[in-house]
Amino acid sequence: xxxxxxxxxxxxxxxxxxxxxxxxxxxxxxxxxxxxxxxxxxxxxxxxxxxxxxxxxxxxxxxxxxxxxxxxxxxxxxxxxxxxxxxxxxxxxxxxxxxxxxxxxxxxxxxxxxxxxxxxxxxxxxxxxxxxxxxxxxxxxxxxxxxxxxxxxxxxxxxxxxxxxxxxxxxxxxxxxxxxxxxxxxxxxxxxxxxxxxxxxxxxxxxxxxxxxxxxxxxxxxxxxxxxxxxxxxxxxxxxxxxxxxxxxxxxxxxxxxxxxxxxxxxxxxxxxxxxxxxxxxxxxxxxxxxxxxxxxxxxxxxxxxxxxxxxxxxxxxxxxxxxxxxxxxxxxxxxxxxxxxxxxxxxxxxxxxxxxxxxxxxxxxxxxxxxxxxx
Length: 376
Ligand SMILES: *Cc1c(COP(=O)(O)O)cnc(C)c1O
Known about the structure:
By secondary structure, the chain is α/β, with parallel strands linked by helices. It has helices at 25-38, 48-52, 56-65, 76-84, 98-101, 114-121, 147-159, 181-199, 212-217, 345-352, 356-362; strands at residues 19-24, 42-46, 70-75, 91-95, 108-111, 128-132, 164-169, 206-208, 225-228, 246-251, 254-258, 263-264, 270-271, 276-281, 298-301, 304-309, 317-322, 331-335, 368-372. It has a nine-stranded mixed beta sheet.
C-alpha cells in the first residue's frame, strides 16, 4: 500500500487519485499564531481562490480556531460557499456583480464608487460596507478626487439606516517588498482618507491596509486588522519561519529502462547520455505543474532528488531515476515544506519564473485534497 510520507504520523489511507495535495491544517494554525504574536491587530484570513488552492472551508475553520476574526474573499461566490458551510465569522468580499449582490445577505462588501454604494443601498439584504480608497495601487478603490463625495453619500445613507460603513480600507502596491517607503506613503494617504470620512460623519470600526508582508514591514498602529493570505499557507516572504501547509504527492505510474541515445517526451528535448531508468509521474500541466519549469525541475522520488527530464506534458512527466532501484508505486513528492529533501513550492516558482502563490493556485481539480494534522 502506498503511504503518504509524513514526518508526523503515517496516513491512514492510501492515495485517492493519481496525486494528492495533503494540507496540514496545524501549519495554517501555526502561521496564524505567528502573525498574531507579531502584529497586535485583528486578523482577516484571506481564503480567496479556494484558499490559494488549499481548500477554503477547512482553511477558514483552522484559521478561525487559531484566532482569525474575519475572512476575506475576492469573489462573491466564495463568500457564499463559506456561509453555505455554516461558517458565521464576518466575511468581506471585494468583487461582485449586481446579480450576486442580491445573494450576499450577511456578507460585508467593498464599495469604491457612489454607483456601487447605490446598488448596495437598493439591496436590502446587504448592510455592511467597507469603503475602499485607492491610495496608490491604481486597481480597485475610490479615486482620491471622488472620496469626499463617496463618504458624504455613505454618511447620508447611514443616517437613513440603509447601510453601515463598518470599514475603510485600501491595498498596498508594494506589500511584498521589505522596503516600506511606498507603504508608509499609502498609510499616510489612508489616514487622511479616514480623517475626511470622519468629518463626513462616518465612524468605521475596522480600518485596514496591510497584507501578509505589509503587516510585518509597516508599523500601522492606527489600523485595526491585517489581511493575511500568503502567510497562512506558509509563503514566507520575509523569512519569519512560517510553515508551508501543502505537500503535493504522487507515485510512479510506470518504470522502465531506456538506452543511451534514446530521447524522452515530446520533441526529444532530453536524450539519455547513458542507459538509465525513467519513471512516469502521472500529473502534468493540466494539474498545475508548470510546463516551463521542465528544464530545471526535480522531485523527490523514493527519497532521492531526481531530475525531471523532457517536456512536461498535460497529464504526465518523466523523471530520470538513474540506477535507483525504483518500482511502480514509488512515492513522489513534487513539493512540500522541504524538510525531507523535497523541493518547495518556492523552488517550483523559481523554476517557472513566477511566485509560489501561482503554483498553489494552479493545482488543478484532478488533484484530491486531503487534510491532516501534523505535530506543529
Ligand atoms: C490577496 C489579497 C490579500 C492577501 O495578500 P497576501 O499578500 O497574500 O497576504 C489582501 N488584500 C487583498 C485586497 C487581496 O486581494
